[in-house]
Design goal:
alpha+beta; Hypothetical protein af1432; HD domain-containing protein
Amino acid sequence: MLNLKTNDRIENQPVIVRQISKKINQNGKEYYSLQISYGIKNYDAKIWNSNIGVSEEIIPGSVVNIWGVVREFKGNLQIHIDKILHISNPSSDLLEKITPSCSLEEDKLAKRLAEIIGTIKNEYLNQLLNNIFSSPDIKEAFYKKAAGVEIHHAYTGGLAQHTIEVAETVIQLCKIYNYIDYDMAVAGALLHDIGKIVELSNFPENKYTTLGRLLGHINIGTQIIEKYTSQINKFPEDVKLELQHCILSHHGSLETGSPVLPMTLEALVIHNADKTSAELNGFYLAIQRDVKNDDWTDYNNTFKRYIKKS
């Protein structure tokens, strides 16, 4: 963890560049504005001296070493960079050290996923889930990708963590509302964001891929369901359609990106479980990332409010 304080001097510090842009101040002088990260923390940074050599290789997702000093600006920490050097081939150890990651280990996430799949009695859904999550391409990406670029579960392992949180919430709601189809609701929960294995790139970049921007994870997810159900002999058409509906409607409204509204009990419970997981983690990340020197975060544009840290 990089815990910085006002007036700290930074020497040869590796960080990930999240954003970088050249701007012009009121006096017509050029400067660079950056957002950099180390682990879960994001920092605002500036290069006021435009004569400092900024390589063309320094783009969002690149790993760099920086030198500079920490200042305070409007209650927030701001790093004034004196020197910045691109790291061409960062080692796996360095990437693991500076990349934001899930607090849960991959083997524990995989074990819980297998346990949840084991509770599903519908033979077609059970086989479908086992086929999807045992596929080498999907398995590798599922435990490495984030669930979002910035807002929620935006770290390695975040997609798997978010998926299991949604499934766990659905399981508990099924205990309360026993008229929900458990197998369909839990299967839909486990597959609702499966398209994100393609929609988002790997860390340290973690941005939308071209396919992700053009199609989005919801459409990609329904395509994955189409592909894997076609490989199972006599997979029921009605089960496939209801499962695809759960994916298509899980954002809950047309305004938030769902092509259709939830029209089954199972789709509705998945939407609400997804919303709960995303918002709670979004709040938590906002608190963890904040570098303001008081008990409240800076104004959060996503949630349109200040968030109390303690």
